[in-house]
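Q: Hi! Curious about what DHHA1 domain-containing protein looks like structurally. Here's the sequence.
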Amino acid sequence: MNLEQKITEFWTYIKKAKNITLFTHVEPDGDTLGSAVALKHLILLNEKGKNVRISGGDYPRNLMFLSDEEIQLVDQDFFDSSLKIVVDTSTKKRIYDKRVKTEESLKIDHHPFEGKWLFEIGGDFWPATGQLMTKLAMILKLKTDQKVIEALAVAIITDTEFFKERNVNSETFECMKFLMDQGLDYNNLLKKMQLNEAENLFILKAIKNVEVNSLVSYMIVDEEVSNDIARPLVAKFVEQSTTEVSLAFLKRKEGDYRCEIRSKTYFDVSKVANAFGGGGHLNSSGFIQNDLTKLNEILNFINKSK
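A: Let's find out. The predicted structure is below.
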């Protein structure tokens, strides 16, 4: 089944449902939020009589302009009665709403195919779920509005780190052209996405403490790093890094460390993440560590794998 056929079948599920819940992932980023907001409004604009909600939370402060209401977990009655669609999330453990059963849910995503799903679209060759969602709008010739095009643009921009990340290709820019042809004000959108002064100062302070160990630049942030700034902090760190691999240990409110690992070209950081209980893509992955005791083990693992 080609992409157009898959998208058509995916939309058939939507046409048949009255209530629809969209689910985002833990430690959510612009791709999962933007894709979910865009899909919600694409459904409401193009299909009559639908009730669509997003179930999730902890979204980055600077991206909450995308939603016209606070997003929380949906109530049990709506959950039970709805078609369930998981967005930008490859496995059950990454879904924010733990009630979801993957075998009873649809998935639209850009991670490796994992687990059993009722129906899924995706695969590890899209730079962002937002690009796949934009293709959906283009293929089905769906009506869009300002909410849709801004949400799709945020999804693409943030997950490609402003078009610098993995798998960016001509189709990425064709999708951005489509959004701009639909009325996207790109410069104004960037202004809306800006961090505030305190967030920027926190990031600048954090990236001063970088160490280099052979193939790896690494940093440890022992102040709590909120999900509001985790991705921008890592992006700025990687931008400054001169090594193939960049590794960030970021203290979470739970007291453990969110470990984000990136590579510039050839190194498959997903192998490192998988070895330490996480996962992700070739150039961008993550995992959790309770403390810093395995730091040297992780650094050795990376350097021995080069």
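A: A fun detail: The mean pLDDT is 94.
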